């Protein structure tokens, strides 16, 4: 291909504007394209044979990304677009698909006609492949954590549960794992046992030393007693600081009671039957060496992952030696056929097989027995990719406690290796959001609250509250903690706790926010954390027909007066700083006098304001006003704001938490 000759200074200036990476320059008038050596290296071409991939996208761009690439390039070429930004897979000269980040900016002549596209390109395949591998690894760990038939839990510095698996919640009688969060052993056990547990956890946090395989006697609130085999460890953060404890427990009640009964019988008959004592001794040895095996298999029932226990079971040095093999490589053909048939049924039905007692014939001729649970293995998109199982060798009566240590070691390593989001998720869970909100009224006026809430992740930093203050008064709060995810959810939990303490000031918006700020700043100082939260708190008083509002670094609400939607004007001195930044801040309040017309007030977090489209344009307040003006009522308007915001978004979905809280005030006659 012939390449256009351009002034080097001009080319360098344009290339620097586009990117500091590999650059390209497409002269639309001459029909020629220039690639820098780095881009040619990425694609595997030389200057002479390099094609113009932008004129033949269907030959060079992966089918999964072709439509998006064509649409964005079309917008740039024919619709006065300002920027091309996309991350597609592009075929190299050697036929390999690689991921690239492609950027371009248009160059127009004095009459505004598009004459050139100048851009950059960089190979991001390594990052994309790493993200995929990390997601699969996290999925495996989550499946194992949620389905392993032992109790695993994490507690903070005050011995409050911050994360647990389903088995733990079920054993403690909680409706779900969420109901368990924030509680302590005192909520389930008799005080003496709960105090001993707390003391042991304090010692672990002070010394940094684990307590391994301790048999504990539990006394519950309802008087029942159980026995568990407990191992507890210090829970360390990403920088080695101790954040609390985590533990693994196994219910040994039946074994202990059987042992006690056996001991009593042995004491009575020891002089007549020495064999019973020997059986008790053998049972004790088995309990002290419980094995446990964990494995994943693909759609053909071949091993793709196995733990150390499996390698010991097969007398191999490394679990990697198991990968790619089948049950028939270790067991008899009869067992391998039965196991494969079971796994096929699990993959077809999506239903697990729990607690099955299996007879296992080995190729050597020996026979063992295993108590096995097998589960369907779903990928992150919900597709069946195989099966995974957890089994224990019950030919020696019970599972081995050594395997529990292996699981603890795996979880501890992953605790420091995976993303910060997963680490912090063990500290906090988001409080439930109410589905309906109360109404408040007088003889002639009704105040109704409505909300729309869409978190960007399972743990959000946006939240709201409506606080009843009487039949004709209510407080309302909308808060946006910096960022989103588990760190923000932890601050939400702090704020909810502080709100409970400050409810006596809920009638006074300025004082209420002042006290919340003081408490949150103090907590941040204690834990050496730099965070903040914006908030708006108001009190609607139907008797005095006024709304009093105080702001802490939060967007001003929109107010409907008749047919007009206006942004509440707020003077600079009346808009205080975000909560948690300046401990001694004092927050002011301002009044809105209610008139005789139908009125409404809409509070929102910045998630809806900052939604960006493909041209990096924010949704903004003006678009919200435009949508609300066309709506017949507030609830419909709030729905349409979400629809319009989502349609505006670059990927047609929200990247940040979205929280809307609306207040509509109507005549009691209209409401009736």
Secondary-structure blueprint:
Layout: H1 8-18, E1 22-27, E2 32-35, H2 37-43, H3 57-60, H4 63-78, E3 84-86, E4 89-91, E5 97-108, E6 114-123, H5 125-147, E7 151-156, E8 161-164, H6 166-172, H7 177-180, H8 191-207, E9 211-219, E10 225-236, E11 242-251, H9 253-269, H10 274-287, E12 293-297, E13 303-306, H11 308-313, H12 333-349, E14 353-361, E15 367-378, E16 384-393, H13 401-417, H14 420-425, E17 439-441, E18 445-454, E19 462-470, E20 473-481, H15 486-501, H16 509-526, E21 533-541, E22 546-552, E23 558-561, E24 564-567, E25 575-576, E26 590-593, E27 599-604, H17 606-609, H18 620-630, H19 634-648, E28 658-667, H20 668-671
Parallel strand pairs: 22-25
Antiparallel strand pairs: 1-2, 1-6, 3-5, 4-5, 5-6, 7-8, 7-11, 9-10, 10-11, 12-13, 12-16, 14-15, 15-16, 17-18, 18-28, 19-20, 20-21, 21-22, 22-26, 23-24, 23-27, 27-28
Please state roughly what percent of the residues sit in beta strands, choosing from under 5%, 5-15%, 15-25%, 25-35%, 35-45% or over 45%.
25-35%
Q: What is the radius of gyration computed over CA atoms, rounded to a whole number of angstroms?
A: 32 Å
CATH class assignment of the largest domain: Alpha Beta
Residues in helices, as a percent range: 25-40%
User: How many beta-strand runs?
Assistant: 28
Cα distance, first to last residue? Answer: 77 Å
CATH topology of the largest domain: Phosphatase 2c, domain 1
The low-confidence runs, each spanning 5 or more residues with pLDDT under 50, are 1-5, 15-19, 279-290, 398-404, 422-431
Tally of discrete structural domains:
4
Main sheet specs: 6 strands, antiparallel
Mean pLDDT: 82
- The CATH architecture name of the largest domain reads 4-Layer Sandwich
Structural class: alpha+beta
- What shape does the CA trace take? flat
Oligomeric status:
single chain
By CATH, the superfamily of the largest domain comes out as: PPM-type phosphatase domain
Helix run count: 20
């Amino acid at each position: 291909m012939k390449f256009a000759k351009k002034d080097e200074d001009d080319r360098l200036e344009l290339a620097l504007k586009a990117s500091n990476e590999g650059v390209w320059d497409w002269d639309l008038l001459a029909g020629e394209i220039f690639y820098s050596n780095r881009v040619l290296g990425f694609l595997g071409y030389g200057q002479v044979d390099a094609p113009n991939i932008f004129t033949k996208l269907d030959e060079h761009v992966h089918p999964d990304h072709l439509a998006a690439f064509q649409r964005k390039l079309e917008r740039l070429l024919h619709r006065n677009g300002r920027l091309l930004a996309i991350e597609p897979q592009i075929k190299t000269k050697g036929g390999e698909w690689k991921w690239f980040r492609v950027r371009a900016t248009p160059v127009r002549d004095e009459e505004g006609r598009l004459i050139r596209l100048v851009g950059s390109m960089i190979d991001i395949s390594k990052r994309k492949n790493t993200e995929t591998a990390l997601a699969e690894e996290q999925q495996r760990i989550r499946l194992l954590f949620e389905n392993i038939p032992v109790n695993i839990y994490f507690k903070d510095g005050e011995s409050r549960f911050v994360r647990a698996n389903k088995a733990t919640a079920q054993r403690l009688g909680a409706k779900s794992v969420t109901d368990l969060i924030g509680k302590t052993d005192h909520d389930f056990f008799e005080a003496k046992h709960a105090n001993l547990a707390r003391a042991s956890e304090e010692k672990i946090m002070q010394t940094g030393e684990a307590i391994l395989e301790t048999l504990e006697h539990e006394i519950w609130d309802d008087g029942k007693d159980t026995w568990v085999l407990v191992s507890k460890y210090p829970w360390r953060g990403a920088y080695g600081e101790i954040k609390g404890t985590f533990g693994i427990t196994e219910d040994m009640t039946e074994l202990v009671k059987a042992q006690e009964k056996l001991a009593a019988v042995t004491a009575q008959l020891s002089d007549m039957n020495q064999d019973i004592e020997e059986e008790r001794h053998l049972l004790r040895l088995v309990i002290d060496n419980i094995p446990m095996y964990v494995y994943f298999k693909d759609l053909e029932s071949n091993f793709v992952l196995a733990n150390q226990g499996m390698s010991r079971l097969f007398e191999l040095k490394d679990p990697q030696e198991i990968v790619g093999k089948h049950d028939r490589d270790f067991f008899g053909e009869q067992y391998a056929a039965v196991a494969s048939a079971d796994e096929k049924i699990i993959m077809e039905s999506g239903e697990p097989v729990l607690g099955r007692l299996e007879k296992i014939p080995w190729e050597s001729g020996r026979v063992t027995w295993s108590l096995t649970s097998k589960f369907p293995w779903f990928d992150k998109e919900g597709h069946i990719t195989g099966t995974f199982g957890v089994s224990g060798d019950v030919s020696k009566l019970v599972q081995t406690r050594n395997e529990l240590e292996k699981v603890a070691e795996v979880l501890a390593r992953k605790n420091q290796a995976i993303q910060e989001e997963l680490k912090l998720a063990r500290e906090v869970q988001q409080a439930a959001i109410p589905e309906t909100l109360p109404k408040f009224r007088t003889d002639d006026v009704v105040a109704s609250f409505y909300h729309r809430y869409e978190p960007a992740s399972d743990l959000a930093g946006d939240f709201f509250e409506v606080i009843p203050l009487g039949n004709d008064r209510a407080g309302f709060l909308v808060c946006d903690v910096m960022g989103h995810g588990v760190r923000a959810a932890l601050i939400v939990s702090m704020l909810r706790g502080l709100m409970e303490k400050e409810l006596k000031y809920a009638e006074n918006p300025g004082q209420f926010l002042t006290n919340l700020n003081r408490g949150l700043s103090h907590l941040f100082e204690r834990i050496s954390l730099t965070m903040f939260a914006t908030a708006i708190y108001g009190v609607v008083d139907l008797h005095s027909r006024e709304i009093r509002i105080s702001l802490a670094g939060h967007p001003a609400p929109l107010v409907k007066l008749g047919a007009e939607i206006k942004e509440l004007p707020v003077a600079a001195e009346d808009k205080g700083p975000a909560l948690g930044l300046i401990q001694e801040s004092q927050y002011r309040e301002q009044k809105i006098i209610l008139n005789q017309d139908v009125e409404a007030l809409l509070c929102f977090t910045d998630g809806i304001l900052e939604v960006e489209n493909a041209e990096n344009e924010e949704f903004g307040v003006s678009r919200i006003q435009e949508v609300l003006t066309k709506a017949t009522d507030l609830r419909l308007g709030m729905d349409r704001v979400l629809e319009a915001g989502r349609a505006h978004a670059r990927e047609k979905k929200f990247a940040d938490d979205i929280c809307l809280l609306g207040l509509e005030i109507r005549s009691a006659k209209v409401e009736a």
